[in-house]
Amino acid sequence: MKKSFASLAVVGLAAASVVTLAPTASASGCTSTWLRSPGTTTTGAMVATKANSPCHDLNVSWSYNPSGSGSGYFGLYRKSSTSGWIGGSRGYVQMDNGYHDINNSYFALVTDLTPGTQFTVISRNPGDEVTIVH
């Protein structure tokens, strides 16, 4: 019986070690927003508002170009609905269709965005879709 408990304790300790070594997911407490791009213009763009969350950037967690295998995506933001759009410093970021690692800075379209700031995503192809974690 004591051997069983000792074995169980070793297994439990090993499992706890694996859990502590696993990478931390930055999406905890963040908000996800799905957007469809009107193409290379902001006319008709879907507008979202940056959440008050631990995520400070606009990270693409998923993208889809219905007419191809990928596309270029461009994040824009503005302080109010009456002010002009400001483009993220990275310009168009090329991505394949599919899910993306939000811990990889390559997929951040805009960095250090203040909560309450409006944002949108445009792309090289009308109808492209993205999910933004913010």
Describe the structure.
- With 134 residues, this protein is α+β, with helices and mostly antiparallel strands.
- 15% of the residues lie in helices and 34% in strands.
- It has one helix and ten strands; from the N terminus they run αββββββββββ.
- It has one helix at 2-21, and strands spanning 32-36, 48-49, 58-64, 70-78, 86-87, 93-96, 98-99, 108-110, 118-123, 129-133.
- The strands form two sheets. Strands 1, 3, 7, 8 and 10 form a five-stranded antiparallel beta sheet that branches. Strands 2, 4, 5, 6 and 9 form a five-stranded antiparallel beta sheet that branches.
- β4 and β5 (86-87) form a beta hairpin.
- The longest helix is centred in the first third of the chain and has 20 residues, at 2-21.
- The protein is globular.
- The termini are far apart.
- The model is unreliable at 1-25 (pLDDT under 50).
Instruction: Give the overall pLDDT as a whole number.
Output: 85
SS class: alpha+beta
Helix % is 10-25%
Low-confidence segments, given as residue ranges, are: 1-25
The dominant shape is globular
Compute the number of helices: 1
Largest sheet: 5 strands, antiparallel
Q: What's the gist of this structure?
A:
With 134 residues, the chain is of the alpha+beta class.
Question: What order do the helices and strands come in, and which of them pair?
Answer:
Layout: H1 2-21, E1 32-36, E2 48-49, E3 58-64, E4 70-78, E5 86-87, E6 93-96, E7 98-99, E8 108-110, E9 118-123, E10 129-133
Antiparallel strand pairs: 1-10, 2-9, 3-7, 3-8, 3-10, 4-5, 4-6, 4-9
